[in-house]
Write a structure and sequence with these properties.
- By secondary structure, this protein is of the alpha+beta class.
- The protein is built from 5 helices and 4 strands.
- The longest helix is centred in the middle third of the chain and has 18 residues, at 90-107.
Length: 175
């Protein structure tokens, strides 16, 4: 990638991936981006579970009713977690870490997609947290913000269109 301006423009969500695995070096760079991301009071209280087992990935795709089935086609997912009792900014810190991983993946030529899990679940009332804890043996005090799917892109997405930016949503000084 030539510069951050271009990186921001070309990073798009990808829900289709090839079967090619992500190299260990690229996985490490993606996680490095998360571990270097800014956090409230430098707490660095987030946790990440890296999952490359196809069976566990398929189970994670069923953690909520809608919008997560494509996960089963990803060769790698990262579960982003935080402890709400330890860090009142766990959602913000986890979000910053998640997008940092997504930008790093894009810079490596990989695709990614955020799958919201916080506040989501199954129609029977089971929370996505409960499902994910059961699959990955996550302690009760941890809450799942999202699952990030990563892989080699199996589709092409056009860059963001500059003409469609909502500049009218930017207010300078006052509303």
């Amino acid at each position: 990638m030539e510069d951050f301006k271009q990186l921001v423009q070309v990073r798009r969500s990808h829900r289709k991936f090839t079967e090619e695995q992500i190299s260990p070096e690229d996985v490490q760079l993606i996680l490095r981006a998360a571990l270097m991301s800014p956090t409230s009071k430098s707490q660095r209280a987030w946790h990440f579970v890296v999952v490359d087992d196809a069976t566990d990935i398929e189970k994670l795709s069923d953690a909520k009713d809608l919008g997560s089935q494509f996960i089963k086609g990803a060769p790698l997912v990262v579960v982003v977690l935080g402890d709400p009792l330890q860090n009142d900014c766990w959602v913000e810190d986890g979000s910053i870490a998640a997008i940092s991983m997504q930008y790093q993946a894009e810079d490596l030529g990989l695709g990614s997609c955020w799958v919201q899990m916080r506040g989501r679940g199954l129609s029977d009332g089971t929370s996505a947290d409960t499902v994910i804890r059961g699959i990955l043996d996550i302690p009760e005090n941890m809450s799942c913000l999202c699952v990030l799917a990563f892989g080699h892109k199996a589709d092409e997405r056009k860059p963001q269109n500059e003409d469609r930016l909502k500049w009218e949503h930017v207010h300078v000084g006052k509303w």
